């Protein structure tokens, strides 16, 4: 299975990455909202502001003004829009689950995914990041790195719907949260360091030559 071999190679290169960065499930939820269309370093600044204000708790964050929230998350960019997205998530958490992320994310994966996707500002990648990293669900997160790597190796065309790419990966990897979590983290590392949009470092990449000639019509990607 090429994706399993890819996982092994990436793990050998990078080691376990223990991703997503966050000290609590709620912090991971906040990070998943703030990281939309911005660099993680900027998200870290915003989260540091929230931590310094002792607001990495759903009920405490929900109690502050919109203006104060915007000011605290300003480093993450588009802060007015993201403050609105955070308020939608906070309302869902506090009203429905007393601010408890663990309770909110407990249950059937697809049912919880539907709840998240019903919130304005939560798209498929954000919802799956929350489910995987904050809720421990066995679901794969598809991002731009995933699409770039798989399409460059001819495993997908790059025009597939999000859920088609997610299903493609989930069908070829063990369906457990730890593996899907780690595989996505490894993909991010390859995408950032090797499979770059311009001047990719193909010869140095841990995935070099792995997928050449793979038959993507078969579930195991056999040659």
Describe the secondary-structure layout.
Elements: H1 2-14, H2 25-34, H3 40-52, H4 58-62, H5 66-73, H6 79-97, H7 101-104, H8 109-117, H9 124-134, H10 144-152, H11 162-170, H12 177-193
What would a concise description of this structure say?
By secondary structure, the chain is mainly α. The chain contains twelve helices and no strands.
Count of helical stretches = 12
The CATH H-level superfamily of the largest domain is: Hypothetical protein, domain 2
Number of domains: 2
Distance between the termini: 9 Å
CATH structural class of the largest domain: Mainly Alpha
**How many runs of DSSP E, i.e. beta strands?**
0
- CATH fold name of the largest domain, please? Endonuclease III, domain 1
Helicity, in percent? Answer: 55-70%
- From the helix content, strand content and strand pairing, which structural class follows? mainly alpha
Largest beta-sheet characterization = none
CATH architecture of the largest domain: Orthogonal Bundle
Low-confidence stretches: 213-223
Oligomerization: single chain
How confident is the prediction overall: mean pLDDT? Answer: 92
């Amino acid at each position: 299975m090429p994706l399993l071999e890819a996982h092994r190679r990436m793990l050998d290169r990078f080691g376990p990455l223990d991703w997503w960065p966050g000290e609590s499930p709620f912090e991971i939820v906040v990070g998943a909202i703030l990281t939309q269309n911005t660099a993680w370093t900027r998200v870290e600044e915003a989260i540091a502001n929230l931590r310094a204000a002792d607001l990495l708790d759903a009920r405490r964050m929900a109690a502050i003004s919109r203006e104060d929230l915007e000011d605290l998350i300003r480093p993450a960019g588009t802060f007015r829009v993201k403050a609105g997205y955070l308020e939608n998530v906070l309302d869902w958490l506090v009203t429905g689950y007393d601010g408890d992320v663990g309770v909110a994310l407990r249950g059937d994966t697809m049912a919880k995914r539907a709840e998240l996707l019903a919130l304005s500002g939560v798209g498929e990648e954000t919802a799956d990041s929350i489910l995987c990293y904050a809720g421990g669900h066995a679901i794969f997160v598809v991002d731009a790195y995933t699409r770039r790597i798989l399409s460059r190796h001819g495993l997908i065309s790059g025009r597939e719907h999000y859920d088609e790419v997610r299903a493609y990966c989930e069908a070829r990897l063990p369906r457990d949260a730890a593996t899907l979590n780690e595989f996505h983290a490894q993909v991010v590392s390859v995408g950032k360091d090797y499979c770059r949009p311009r001047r990719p470092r193909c010869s140095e990449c841990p995935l070099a030559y792995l997928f050449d000639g793979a038959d993507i019509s078969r579930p195991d990607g056999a040659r």
